[in-house]
Amino acid sequence: MITHQVELESTGVGTSCNLTLRTFGPPSGRKALYIQAALHAAEVPGLLVLQHFLAMLAELEESDRLLHRVTVATWANPIGMAQHLMGHLTGRFDLGGTGNFDRNFCDVRSEIGATFGTAEQRIPSTTELKSWLSNAALKFDSSLDPVHVLKRQLLAIGFEHDAVLDLHCDKTAMMHIYSSWDYQERAAALAQCMGAPILILEDEAGGGTFDQAFRDAWRKIKSLGISRDPAIGFAAVVELRGQRDVSDELAVADAAGLVDFLRSEGIARTDTSVSAGPAPAIVALNAIEHVAAPSAGVIAWKAACGQHVTRGAVIAEIAACDSEVPGRRTPIHASASGTLIARAHISLVTPGQRVAMIGGNEALPDRQSGKLLHD
């Protein structure tokens, strides 16, 4: 194992920020994988998963069963991890005003076109392409804002590898995975290894997330005919259930699932076959319905995550807590049939607040390609 510290821009006088990268396996030049956790800093299940995963990687490396390089960032967002506000960690948005930590990563597609889009251009090797992409991310702009520096560094690190995994979680949720139609087979294999029942796919989600910035760059390169390596460019987000699903039992199982994925990718070898679970249900991102609260009050759930609901079914009620005795209740109806994937974890809700996510089988008319992610 090699440990490397990446110094980041300080957020203030007397403070310092860094990323800690731990790299395992031989530098084969192929199938290198990068994994990070808690880019949304309050989504902490992945932090514990990676602790167990590091121990498993060390064992694989020691027994010469790791065939290619795996790099782990044990935390991806030291800035967000420091955002404790009145006893609560608030790590999805930058309190300094730059917005969602997992939005607006560098889009280097125009730079790729300008550099490699001419017929006279010599076709670079994969190693040269990865180095060029990493440098392009670092030099994308000159902003010294600590969050912009962090995003450039994370993407540059990702570009040094052939594939990336980003570990997140939802509020209260079943495990699910986001990836793209381009890599449906590999994403399904990841879901099976992790035991994720739902796989959500989309090529043009929008928003400029970390995984999309990585994937879009390689899609552009392949569209120019510069690289046709099918192993490179894969990216996925693993949603490790909900924010409260943090335990050694879950983390050990999830880390073992990551090891199974390494084996399915040919990154690691073991003496036993990959213990893949059942195939996931595949849902298009434009068939995901976000259900909003119709009024303010206390929410009482009538459906659990993982449950199939039909359109029009009451999935929750909101108690108004007003002057009437008992308080008025407003039903929340499922606006599409499908699986209740995630729901709010805080019970006091406001009008218009997104409180549930349902994965259906049909594209929804109000869902537009390129604008499919909420903040």
TrEMBL record:
Q: Which Pfam families match?
A: AstE_AspA_cat
Task: Name the source's superkingdom.
Answer: Bacteria
A GO molecular function assigned to this protein is: hydrolase activity, acting on ester bonds
**Residue limits of the Succinylglutamate desuccinylase/Aspartoacylase catalytic domain?**
31-218
Q: Does the keyword Transferase apply?
A: no
Tell me the keywords, alphabetical order.
Hydrolase, Metal-binding, Zinc
Query: In the UniProt record, does the keyword 4Fe-4S occur?
Result: no
Could you say which cofactors this protein requires? Answer: Zn(2+)
Q: What is this protein called?
A: Succinylglutamate desuccinylase/Aspartoacylase catalytic domain-containing protein
